[in-house]
Automatic annotation (TrEMBL), chain A:
<dbReference type="InterPro" id="IPR047001">
    <property type="entry name" value="MnmG_C_subdom"/>
</dbReference>
<dbReference type="InterPro" id="IPR004416">
    <property type="entry name" value="MnmG"/>
</dbReference>
<feature type="binding site">
    <location>
        <position position="127"/>
    </location>
    <ligand>
        <name>FAD</name>
    </ligand>
</feature>
<feature type="binding site">
    <location>
        <position position="371"/>
    </location>
    <ligand>
        <name>FAD</name>
    </ligand>
</feature>
<comment type="function">
    <text>NAD-binding protein involved in the addition of a carboxymethylaminomethyl (cmnm) group at the wobble position (U34) of certain tRNAs, forming tRNA-cmnm(5)s(2)U34.</text>
</comment>
<feature type="binding site">
    <location>
        <begin position="274"/>
        <end position="288"/>
    </location>
    <ligand>
        <name>NAD(+)</name>
    </ligand>
</feature>
<dbReference type="InterPro" id="IPR026904">
    <property type="entry name" value="MnmG_C"/>
</dbReference>
<dbReference type="GO" id="GO:0030488">
    <property type="term" value="P:tRNA methylation"/>
</dbReference>
<feature type="binding site">
    <location>
        <begin position="15"/>
        <end position="20"/>
    </location>
    <ligand>
        <name>FAD</name>
    </ligand>
</feature>
TrEMBL record, chain B:
<dbReference type="InterPro" id="IPR027368">
    <property type="entry name" value="MnmE_dom2"/>
</dbReference>
<dbReference type="GO" id="GO:0003924">
    <property type="term" value="F:GTPase activity"/>
</dbReference>
<feature type="binding site">
    <location>
        <position position="84"/>
    </location>
    <ligand>
        <name>(6S)-5-formyl-5,6,7,8-tetrahydrofolate</name>
    </ligand>
</feature>
<keyword id="KW-0630">Potassium</keyword>
<dbReference type="GO" id="GO:0046872">
    <property type="term" value="F:metal ion binding"/>
</dbReference>
<dbReference type="GO" id="GO:0030488">
    <property type="term" value="P:tRNA methylation"/>
</dbReference>
<dbReference type="Pfam" id="PF12631">
    <property type="entry name" value="MnmE_helical"/>
</dbReference>
<dbReference type="InterPro" id="IPR006073">
    <property type="entry name" value="GTP-bd"/>
</dbReference>
<feature type="binding site">
    <location>
        <position position="123"/>
    </location>
    <ligand>
        <name>(6S)-5-formyl-5,6,7,8-tetrahydrofolate</name>
    </ligand>
</feature>
């Protein structure tokens, strides 16, 4: 095979899905000359499944990406057809934004953002091979024999590797949505010693808008005053489009049960492991057979398309059965399928092969990010993408790497879970995976991460100034409220009664008043407003920080304890076989994961506290030697 | 270095007349000082010993007379500030002291942790690193063994039930959070969460206050030996003491006027109490009458009534039976080496369903049966109590107390109208703490629960 020299770059990103675009953009912003190679330039940041971005945990990731200077938040803010804040009745830690996306528009906007970034070169091409010399990455070779050189390569090929689409008893090699599968690259990775695993996911059928009778469904409108993901967005989209809700019924379930044998899931055609959190409809009927009905959401795929996504009906039953199922559902009696639902199996990289920087341990200079690492979801992919981009650029340009810890970001939780514990099903973020979720809020993503983004060069000077100003205002207002003692005037007492609180017995600090659960910042605005009116996000921050201070302090104490162990680094050349006291299972796990810190070691399943203690004693030997020589 | 302050009993129980509770860490002095009625320990020279009283932080009553040694870092074993509280070696007292310092913010030391700290702080030299690691391994394995043995017990069964109830509740909250549009489950309300929390709270409370086995292990079984003169009470005492190398505590120079003796029967501590200050219990009934002696004897967990095989049942014996009616006792028919005069059938009738055993203490006969009877009475045979050490029990008690605290916090937060997802932090904490008792702290089980309990997904 003779190749031609096609160019020299700092970073090459393979794939332009949600991981790829963030990776390329972050690397470029850090100053790396970046090549983005992808199979089809019209499918940049394509959403193969649901037309929505955000939701619990995931929405917070989008904000984190934005705080670090990434693209996802900005682009969805420009292209949503509907925006909703979820969990508004709950505490601040679990509030989450979710947008319905205009899919084709999202692609266009994302492509434009990349095209406008001067450090990025966009090129269509199928990568078949990594060029590795002496265990180090040198570049990639494409199908058309182009050899591109770079010190860092990020692979973000999603569900394409040895992809296989399955509909009923029909199955063929394919990436999502009938794109080409990426077979050679999978083979090459295997040759290079990558451990791969077979996963599976699926998507429901799409139907055409005018075949739906919406009068039989319930409307699901967006929020009246939509909030946004990006801290840079200033304008809201006013003409939002609703979604619709309908339900399956007994009839639907009978059809599914009768045809269960034809489902690829049950006929044994599918070998890959699917995610529990997005089961196919046949899965739901089998596992929860006494549920009389399941929700079905009808979600438009965009403004300039008639296609409607049928959420809740992911399936790998034959096409004709899909039609029968649809037509058993109120509102869909006449539904015309535009695309059938399908299941897809693909190869993923076992993520414990990665360092927390997302660099592959055994092949220096290769990074992987996104669904290829065993995750599922656009946001999970994008979150890894930006981190891989930051670290791949660091590698190429000899700059600092970045690892976010579990108390800093959901992105930190996600990556730590992957590289430390691995996963045996496609991994999705859930709020319950974050032990410090009170600290990892949607509202404070900027306070957590903007400094980092700025230092990396991903946040503009102008935005950083605005951020600093916001921080100052929050601190000043908190200080001010500490200094105001409110008398129990009639005005205040009747206000308290109005909001269903108890009357005050005595004077009270404004600060302490705000601590009461029923008191919002509105009350402050009424009884002791600041000189200059504050922005809503400042008020929100002041209220949350004061009201939940007790919990926040508790969480911070936990974090401090963890940090101590996080700071105890394990030398890279440690020889676990030389530590006799460690239990066998723990030793095997440690050798595989090669944790960077004692804290990371302690999170590996199978490594017990005693093993951690022994490890600690072992690695402290060097320091001890110094001390005792004094 | 690690900042928190650890505590443990540093003398093996039963091996010395003096027991020591040792604390190490930054807060060692500040934890003990407020509990200590004596010199101001923050203001004493390092490496000095002080006599005083240790007070219960809640009631401010004296718990124990103690000698406190203050040693300031770095010239200590761990190079940290170290406090040693010396008390007479009674199991009850030393455990109580440990519990008190734990309740004031010290953490129960892990196996081998003092040594580990000594090492990490550079007190032990490099060549001993290997030994330190071995020690941690060995101590942990031993503790694990004990923990595993206990896992068969009713405690673990109950704890697992409570955990299941908590995790179902938490999963319910989680599903509301992660799947806000999922219409299948009712929204977890404050009221519902309060009910669920309260249920578990009460169980934990019950476990803590009523768990007889736990109490026994902590404080010993208060045991009175009664019987007419010359039936063999002293031989019984001596036999028990001899058999178990019990500690006979009699600390000179203290003002204690009550003398208690501990013996260890199959790992169960018996506290031989002096009833009502009347050492010679043979004349108890005579001295204070049946009614009052009943009251006094009621304070014991176990009464050993000794009878003489060689004599017929006397009125005094019958009065004793009367005095202990309805209480937990074991009848010991001693001196079977003599020709029989006692009507055993009558004794059995009087004893009802309490155990009657025969011994010839002079010939060392029957002690085993007595020990069996005691172990059976208190552990109904379902715990291998021989391996129970009080340390793991203090640990359990501490964890249960922390669980209660977490649930209390949760209840408080509910009452204050805090959002459910914040309340849930404390509920989850309670679940984790209970998990530490049964040795199961895998976080993924929540996610497993979520997906098996609810039908979720797009
Ligand atoms: C059928 C289906 C159903 C799904 N359902 C859900 C769901 O319900 N919920 C959910 O959260 N997520 C779901 N997902 C997952 C979600 O779509 C992905 O997690 C997300 O898109 C992954 O982003 P990525 O950047 O890792 O990969 P992708 O978005 O798949 O992007 C991969 C990119 O790599 C390119 N590429 C591949 N191979 C090569 C090569 N050799 N050379 C050059 N370029 C290459 C592709 O052209 C593409 O641009 C589903 C995905 C599919 C396919």
């Amino acid at each position: 095979m003779s190749t031609y020299e096609a160019g020299q770059y700092d970073v090459i990103v393979v794939g332009a899905g949600h991981a790829g675009v963030e990776a390329a953009y972050a690397a470029a912003k850090r100053g790396a000359k970046t090549l983005m190679l992808t199979m089809n330039l019209d499918m940049i940041a394509f959403m193969p499944c649901n037309p929505s971005i955000g939701g619990p945990a995931k929405g917070i990731v989008v904000r984190e990406i934005d705080a670090l200077g990434g693209l996802m938040g900005k682009v969805i803010d420009k292209t949503y057809i509907q925006m909703r804040m979820l969990n508004t009745g709950k505490g601040p830690a679990v509030r989450a934004l979710r947008a319905q996306a205009d899919k084709p528009l999202y692609i266009q906007e994302m492509k434009k953002a990349l095209e406008q970034e001067s450090n990025i070169t966009l090129r269509q091409g199928m990568v078949e091979k990594l060029v590795i010399e002496d265990g180090k990455c040198q570049g990639v070779i494409t199908e058309t024999k182009a050899l591109y050189r770079a010190k860092s390569v990020i692979i973000t090929t999603g569900t394409f590797m040895r992809g296989r689409v399955i509909i009923g008893d029909i199955s063929y090699e394919s990436g999502p949505n009938n794109q080409r599968a990426s077979v050679k690259l999978a083979e090459n990775l295997e040759e290079l010693g990558f451990e791969l695993v077979r996963f599976k996911t699926g998507t429901p059928p799409r139907v055409i808008n005018h075949s739906i009778d919406y009068s039989k469904t319930e409307i699901q409108p967006g929020d009246e005053n939509p909030q946004h993901f990006s801290y840079e967005t200033t304008e809201a989209i006013t003409d939002q489009i609703p979604c619709w809700l309908t339900y399956t019924n007994e009839n639907t379930h009978n059809i599914i049960n009768e045809n269960l044998g034809l489902s690829a899931m049950y006929s044994g055609m599918i070998k890959g492991t699917g995610p529990r959190y997005c089961p196919s409809i046949e899965d739901k009927i089998v596992r929860f057979h006494d549920k009389p009905r399941h929700q079905i959401f009808l979600e438009p795929e965009g403004r300039n398309t008639e296609e409607v996504y049928v959420q809740g009906l992911s399936t790998s039953l034959p096409e004709y059965v899909q039609r029968e199922i649809l037509r058993s559902i109120p509102g869909l009696e006449e539904a015309e399928i535009m695309r059938a639902g399908y299941a897809i199996e693909y190869d993923a990289v076992v993520p414990t092969q990665l360092w927390p920087t997302l660099e592959v341990k055994n092949v220096e200079g290769v990074f992987t990010a996104g669904q290829i690492n065993g995750t599922s979801g656009y946001e999970e992919a994008a979150g890894q993408g930006i981190m891989a981009g930051i670290n791949a650029a660091a590698k190429a340009l000899n700059k600092d790497t970045l690892i976010l810890d579990r108390s800093q970001a959901y992105i930190g939780v996600l990556i730590d879970d992957l590289v430390t514990k691995g996963t045996n099903e496609p991994y999705r973020l859930l709020t319950s995976r974050a032990e410090y979720r009170l600290l990892l809020r949607h509202d404070n993503a900027d306070l957590r991460l903007t400094d980092i983004g700025y230092k990396l060069g991903l946040i503009s000077e102008e935005r950083y100034q605005r951020f600093e100003e916001k921080k100052r205002l929050i601190e000043e207002e908190k200080q001010r409220l500490q200094e105001i003692r409110l008398k129990p005037t009639e005005q205040l007492q009747s206000l308290m009664e109005q909001i269903g609180g108890t009357r005050l017995k005595d004077g009270i600090l404004a600060y302490d008043l705000l601590k009461r659960p029923e008191v919002t910042y509105d009350i402050i605005d009424q009884v002791c407003p600041p000189e200059l009116d504050l922005a809503d996000d400042v008020k929100e921050q002041v209220e949350i920080q004061i009201k939940y201070q007790g919990y926040i302090v508790k969480s911070n104490q936990q974090v401090d304890r963890m940090k101590k162990m996080e700071n105890k680094l394990i030398p890279d050349n440690i020889d676990y076989d030389a530590i006799s006291g460690i239990a066998t299972e723990a030793r095997e796990k440690l050798k595989k994961v090669r944790p960077l810190s004692v804290a990371q070691a302690s999170r590996i399943a199978g490594v017990n506290p005693a093993d951690v203690s022994i490890l600690l004693v072992y690695i402290e030997q060097g320091n001890v030697a110094k001390v005792s020589n004094e | 270095m690690e900042k928190d302050t650890i505590a443990a009993i540093s003398t093996p129980i039963g091996e010395g007349a003096i027991a020591i509770v040792r604390l190490s860490g930054e807060e060692a002095v500040s934890i003990v000082n407020p509990l200590f009625d004596g010199k101001d320990l923050t203001n004493v020279d390092s490496h000095t010993i002080h006599y005083g009283k240790l007070l219960d932080p809640v009631t401010s009553e004296m718990v124990e007379e103690v000698m406190v040694t203050v040693m300031k870092g770095p010239k200590t074993f761990t190079k940290e500030d170290v406090i040693e509280i010396n008390c007479h070696g009674g199991l009850a007292s030393v455990n109580r002291l440990l519990e008190i310092v734990l309740s004031r913010g010290a953490r129960l030391a892990e196996p081998g942790e003092f040594t580990k700290r000594a090492f990490l702080n550079g007190r032990i030299d490099l060549s001993q690193a290997e030994a330190v690691m071995d020690l941690i391994r060995a101590k942990t394995d031993k503790a694990m063994n004990i923990a595993l043995k206990q896992l068969d017990g009713k405690l673990s069964k109950l704890v697992n039930q409570l955990r299941q109830s908590l995790i179902e509740t938490v999963a319910h909250v989680e599903v509301n959070i992660d799947y806000p549009e999922y219409d299948d489950v009712e929204e977890m309300s404050h009221q519902l969460l309060r009910e669920k929390t309260e249920e578990v709270y009460q169980e934990v409370e019950r476990l803590l206050s009523m768990a007889r086995q736990g109490k026994i292990l902590r404080e010993g079984i208060a045991t009175a030996i009664i019987g007419r003169p010359n039936v063999g009470k002293s031989s019984l005492l001596n036999a028990l003491v001899h058999e178990t190398k019990a500690i006979v505590t009699d600390i000179p120079g203290t003002t204690r006027d009550v003398i208690e003796e501990y013996v260890n029967i199959r790992g169960i501590p018996l506290r031989l109490v002096d009833t009502a200050g009347i050492r010679e219990t043979e004349d108890i009934v005579e001295k204070i009458g049946v009614e009052r002696s009943r009251k006094v004897l009621k304070e014991s967990d176990l009464i050993l009534l000794v009878l003489n095989y060689g004599e017929t049942l006397s009125d005094e014996d019958r009065q004793l039976f009367e005095a202990i009616k309805g209480l937990e006792y074991i009848v010991i028919v001693n001196k079977t080496d003599l020709p029989q005069a006692l009507d055993i059938d009558e004794v059995k009738r009087l004893a009802g369903n309490q155990k009657v055993i025969t011994t010839a203490l002079i010939e060392d006969k029957g002690i085993d049966q007595l020990e069996d009877a005691i172990a059976e009475t208190f552990f109904a045979g379902d715990i291998d109590s021989g391996d129970l050490t009080y340390v793991s029990n203090v640990r359990h008690i501490q964890l249960l107390q922390q669980t209660m605290k977490a649930l209390e916090d949760a209840k408080g937060a509910i009452d204050a109208g805090m959002p459910i997802d914040l309340v849930q932090i404390d509920v989850t904490r309670a679940w984790e703490l209970l998990g530490e008792i049964v040795g199961d702290t895998v976080q993924d089980s929540l996610i497993d629960q979520l997906f098996s309990q609810f039908c979720l997904g797009k």
